[in-house]
What does this fold into?
Amino acid sequence: MALCLSAGVHSDIGGYRDVNQDAAFVAPWGAGVADGVGGGPAGDLASAALVHRLVAGGDRVMDAPALAVRIREANWDLGAHVRRDPALAGMATTFTAVWFSQRGTVLLAHTGDSRAYLLRGGELMRQTRDDSFVQTLVEQGLVRAEDAMTHPRRNIITASLRGDATDLVRVAERVPVRGDRWMICSDGVSDYLPDDAIADVLRGVGDPQAAADEIVRLALDAGSRDNVTAAVADVVDGAADARPVRFAGAAAAGFSEELDAAV
It folds into this structure.
């Protein structure tokens, strides 16, 4: 029998930001989180534009190269916004997602410091590497992994999507297993919740929407000073049908008409 995703998503502006720059989506065929880069202009527009353009292409993706092409096309749209309005120069977003291919594999796309985790057989495994300055320091042995969450320069990222043809786009292929649980989150979660706390929720809360809600609640309770977004997606039996896509964060904030008019 074919496999698809049963997913939930929750995004919260948090208590310290005026705008939610996270954008997320979940569907039977995919789930993803984009986080507008702080310090630049219109991070909410960047994340929402990327998510909407990707989803507008539909669910049918043949393989990893095809998804990479779609991401590059959506990234080109970010550049088009800047070309029309130079005040948006520097607009950028991270992006992390899982997506079922037509071949039945799961495609994992990642650029930036949002994260994807996989819970399989009760074991939580991080599936992405942070494109960040602090991650580089950890790998060089200059910062301990346990100190990375509180490092004062943890917000400096080394890769993002900013509408440039040279932007890094990674797509890897995974073999799905019935019962897998994916969790994708912005750094408003991962900078404040240790992996063991995330694992406890993903193991203990059965419903994907309830699990996403609980992850966000715990990150806020932990004092997250960023926007907080989590998508939880279970691999289940069923067809990746045309059920409506659900958006959260900036992607649900009324950008779609503006984006359609701009392209």
Remarks:
- The CA atoms of residues 3 and 237 lie 5 Å apart.
- The two ends are 39 Å apart (CA to CA).
